[in-house]
């Protein structure tokens, strides 16, 4: 695992954009298609804006999310809304977007249709994950009933409905095996607090306590941490 440290979020965003553009460009050149999995929250917004301005054959890129709240796409808490307003603009407006939220009345009822949609995408080019103060990543929350299944590398599932214990809204999350089916995983972190959680995650081995450990401590997919002070 590589850990890259930056003095501030702006410097991190520049380096992260270069990394992602290089990976997407190479994939397009070799495979004629590329895929990018992103996460929601405040941390990636500057990265999204900068990435959206990059010259790339975006029409060959599929963008999707590591997780989503089960709310309408125009809801203020929707990750899809965040991505459409901050990433799928400028040069990136021609990218294809695969939503995790469907018209199904619940995340549980939406699992099967999303499984079919995700099966159309081969190994992801790059997956960018965040991490909560409780050690969750995507919507794989400690203490949730869905966590064990979400972390099960033999589940055969690409996505799973999650009911968080404390966070608002039911969720749809990609499972650990689907997230790891990527050429590279990047964990994007900002702030001293996240660095402390990262240190705890690297030291222990209980994946149920801090689910991010399951990502950091696996050996099948290269992982790179981008952390800004």
UniProtKB/TrEMBL annotation:
Keywords: Hydrolase. GO terms for molecular function: 6-phosphogluconolactonase activity. It catalyses: 6-phospho-D-glucono-1,5-lactone + H2O = 6-phospho-D-gluconate + H(+). It is an enzyme of class 3 (hydrolase). Pfam families: Glucosamine_iso. Residues 8-218 form the Glucosamine/galactosamine-6-phosphate isomerase domain. Belongs to the glucosamine/galactosamine-6-phosphate isomerase family. 6-phosphogluconolactonase subfamily. Hydrolysis of 6-phosphogluconolactone to 6-phosphogluconate. PANTHER family: 6-PHOSPHOGLUCONOLACTONASE. This is 6-phosphogluconolactonase. It comes from SAR92 clade bacterium. The gene is pgl.
């Amino acid at each position: 695992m590589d850990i890259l440290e930056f003095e501030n979020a702006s410097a991190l965003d520049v380096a992260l954009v270069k990394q992602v553009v290089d990976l997407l460009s190479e994939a397009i050149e070799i495979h004629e298609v590329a895929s990018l999995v992103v996460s929601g929250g405040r941390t990636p917004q500057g990265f999204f804006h900068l990435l959206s301005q990059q010259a790339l054959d975006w029409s060959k890129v599929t963008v999707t999310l590591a997780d989503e709240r089960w709310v309408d796409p125009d809801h203020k808490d929707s990750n899809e809304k965040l991505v459409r307003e901050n990433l799928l603009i400028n040069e990136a407006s021609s990218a294809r977007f695969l939503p995790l939220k469907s018209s199904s009345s619940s995340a549980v009822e939406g699992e099967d249709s999303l499984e079919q949609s995700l099966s159309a995408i081969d190994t992801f080019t790059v997956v960018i994950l965040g991490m909560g103060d409780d050690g969750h990543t995507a919507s794989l929350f400690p203490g949730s009933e869905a966590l064990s299944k979400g972390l099960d590398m033999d589940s055969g599932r690409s996505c799973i409905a999650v009911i968080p214990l404390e966070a608002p809204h039911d969720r749809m999350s990609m499972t650990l095996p689907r997230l790891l089916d990527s050429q590279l995983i990047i964990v994007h972190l900002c702030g001293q607090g996240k660095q402390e959680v990262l240190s705890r995650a690297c030291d222990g081995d209980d994946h149920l306590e801090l689910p991010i450990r399951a990502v950091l401590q696996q050996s099948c997919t290269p992982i790179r941490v981008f952390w800004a002070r």
